[in-house]
Amino acid sequence: AVPRSILHKPGRLSAPEWRAVRRHPAVGADLLESIAGFGPVRAAILAHHERFDGRGYPSGLAGTEIPVEARLICVVDAYDAMTNERPYQSALSHAEAIERLNLGAGTQFDPAMLEAVEDALSRNLAPRPTVHPLV
Questions:
Q1: pTM of this prediction?
Q2: What total of structural domains would you count in the chain?
Q3: How far, in Å, are 20, 21, 41, 89 from residue 115 at the CA level?
Q4: N- or C-end of the chain: fewer Cβ atoms within 10 A?
């Protein structure tokens, strides 16, 4: 929903470009509207840029007004953006991203969803023992 030229722009976005970015949750939700059974997914897509403190977009929802799925997507989306190379920002390490996410606990992010994502990442990123076959 956001043109590549905007997604990969190395500098600041212009006002029209920023408006295009802010429209992408509604565009994604509208695409799902015609698919039966995707109501909850549609609501999560529409609200995934809402902030826990109510200062997000497109509707300014706060706290539990934001669907739980959207509160989870918000944290995962931010982690993904932080840990992947962008034209305008170098990728952060896992530890740096977690530190930055925690700065937004209670304002940008639902603290419970942040904790759930941290727990899942710590389990999935933990070193696993090497198993050697018996010969």
A1: 0.84
A2: 1
A3: 31, 27, 22, 25
A4: C
